[in-house]
Design a protein that fits this description.
The complex is a heterodimer of chains A (151) and B (430). By secondary structure, chain A is an alpha+beta fold. Chain A contains 5 helices and 4 strands, in the order ααβββαααβ. The longest helix of chain A has 17 residues. The termini of chain B are far apart. The longest helix of chain B has 21 residues. Classes of the chains: A alpha+beta (151), B alpha/beta (430).
């Protein structure tokens, strides 16, 4: 098996892709946003419950590939209880990891469990799959409710 | 079986797969493959297995050489100059038009309009014929298996004019329900737009019968031939349709060139598409007199090298004995249907009785994109996603499919590589 593929599809990713965590609706969400990847037709709805600038609850629903579902699942786990600014700062670090890989400034340990997504860097066509949930998070936080697109 | 189908490759049914190990003995696929330099490229150190010809076909050396010769030795603007090169270029361009006419068995060369591709052809018909003849309360009928390009231009037209877009249904195998389609053609139906071959399912639609149904109720018929042109014998006299369009790049020619066939009497009375040079007879600030078809629809300097490349692609196709090519392609697809249906957890999408060139499938709960990425690292190129046919995906109840599609150069070995690649997918997602 190709090493890059093994890095991309780590067991954690396959597991979260198949059994995404926080895969549900949130009644009384303060922000809901929909994200589409027009290239693939991947779609997800992200629910955020903010209280005093803290993400009290976060969950998603939708259809997509293993990378996009695992990324959304891991994101929700990482963000529960985090402040809004912390969440966006983490997005910045994750984005750097996904697009720059080892050439970037962010070391995998700076993103915690999300480091399992570091293999995506080797697959430029799949970066959008991994960032979809995060872009959607930003809209949910902005409580715009508008559909955002990765293009 | 209709006349249109009898004319095509479809008579070579799946039962012929048992004709022998080499189902198409008189087709030398190795010789064909040698004409496509890209097929000897390596991808991630592995031999390229190109199974994405429905997205775009690869190009034979002859097409590239013809374009290069034109650009290096004959280039000048067409229909304008009196000098030697202008004459050579005009001859090459109009010669390409005559070649397309023969390729489609159209009655006249002026029934052939060069366009960027099938998408532009559909927009042209919608914006000219459509705007003139489709009004408020009228109907345009399409089918559930259309590509976005044969949906959106008609939707735009309907929005502008107040007409209604109607959709003929399909069955679970991906075949048109002809009785329902016929029911949907009424006195308000001005145009029926249907694909000849589905880009997702490979289904060959019975165009001749649809034309008869539509003409019996005075509706015109547009046929999207993008997926048919590389595989079937296309005959305007046999099909009897009013408009037919195809793209060069899906039939071994270059991108940016395609052709629209339109019946002379319709083209004559249609308003022009875009305004500019070459589409006029005379211009003053008070009044412009438009040129005759096809020039009326070809404003501006056309894609001359593209037309030359398209002509070379037609020559390339003509250089293969059609029945032998069709038998070869049918042999590979039959092998593919058989081999894929034996992969555990795999479900074929599109199992029409009359089908060619496309193998769509889903595999367990593995998303097609993940399949595509893993196959890619094995050197296997397939398409994954909704294939620009989201309404069809909804009808089939899938978000996306993986699609392997064939060209004249495809082999049983390509299919075997695909099947073995799917084993790798299952290894990762076990």
């Amino acid at each position: 098996m190709n090493d890059e593929l093994r890095n991309l599809y780590q067991e954690v990713i396959v597991d979260h892709g198949r059994k995404p965590r926080n895969f549900r609706k949130i009644d009384g969400a303060t922000g809901i946003a929909e994200g589409f990847n027009p290239l693939c037709g991947d779609q997800l709805t992200l629910y955020v419950k903010l209280a005093d600038g803290v993400i009290e609850d976060i969950a998603f629903q939708g259809a997509g590939c293993a990378i996009s579902k695992a990324s959304a699942s891991l994101m929700t786990m990482a963000l529960k209880g985090k402040k809004q600014e912390e969440a966006l700062a983490l997005f910045g670090r994750v984005h750097d990891m996904l697009t720059e890989g080892p050439n970037g400034e962010v070391k995998p340990e700076e993103v915690g469990k999300l480091a399992v997504l570091s293999g995506v860097w080797e697959f430029p066509m799949r970066v959008k799959c991994a960032t979809l949930a995060w872009h959607t998070l930003r809209s949910a936080l902005e409580a715009s409710g508008a559909q955002i697109s990765t293009e | 079986m209709t006349k249109a189908q009898t004319d095509s490759a479809t008579t070579l049914g799946l039962e012929q797969e048992h004709a022998g190990l080499n189902g198409a003995a008189d087709f030398d696929v190795e010789r064909v493959r040698q004409k496509f330099p890209i097929l000897s490229e390596k991808v991630y150190g592995k031999p390229l297995v190109y199974l994405d010809s429905a997205a775009t076909s690869q190009k034979p050396q002859g097409v590239v050489d013809a374009m290069s010769r034109f650009l290096l030795k004959e280039n000048a603007n067409v229909h304008r100059g009196v000098h030697y090169l202008a004459e050579r270029a005009t001859e090459a361009y109009e010669g390409a038009r005559a070649k397309v006419q023969r390729f489609l068995n159209a009655g006249h060369a002026q029934e052939i309009i060069f366009v960027r591709g099938t998408t532009e052809a559909i927009n042209l018909v919608a914006q000219t014929y459509g705007k003139k003849h489709v009004g408020a309360g009228d109907e345009v009928l399409i089918t559930a298996m259309e590509h976005h390009s044969n949906i959106v231009p008609w939707q735009m037209l309907c929005e502008e004019t107040g007409a209604r877009l109607r959709v003929a249904p399909i069955n679970d195998a991906g075949e048109l329900l002809l009785d329902e389609l016929e029911q949907l053609i009424g006195p308000k139906t001005k145009l029926v737009a249907v694909t000849h071959v589905s880009n997702v399912l490979g289904t060959i639609n019975p165009v001749r019968r649809i034309v008869e149904m539509a003409h019996a109720r005075s509706a015109r018929v547009f046929v999207d031939g993008a997926q048919a042109a590389p595989h079937l014998k296309i005959d305007m006299q046999a099909l009897g349709c009013d408009f037919y369009a195809f793209s060069g790049h899906k039939m071994y020619g270059p991108t940016g060139i395609g052709a629209l066939y339109g019946r002379s009497e319709l083209l004559e009375e249609m308003p022009p598409y875009q305004g500019g040079g070459d589409m006029i007879l005379s211009v003053s600030f008070e009044k412009t007199v438009y040129n005759k078809p096809p020039n009326k629809f070809e404003a501006g300097t056309p894609n001359m090298a593209g037309a030359v490349g398209l002509a070379a692609a037609i020559d390339f196709l003509a250089g293969m004995e059609h029945d032998a090519l069709a038998a070869h392609e049918q042999d590979v697809i039959a092998h593919g249907m058989r081999a894929l249906s034996q992969v555990p957890g795999l479900r074929l999408i599109g199992t029409a009785r009359d089908k060619i060139s496309v193998l769509s499938f889903v595999l367990d709960d593995v998303h097609p994109h993940d399949i595509g990425t893993i196959l890619d690292r094995e050197g296997i190129a397939i398409r994954t996603g909704h294939h620009c046919a989201q309404p069809l995906m909804n009808r089939l109840g899938v978000a996306a499919t993986a699609r392997a599609s064939l060209g004249c150069y495809s082999t049983r070995q390509d299919i075997d590589a695909l099947v073995s690649g799917l084993g790798k997918v299952q290894e990762i997602f076990r």
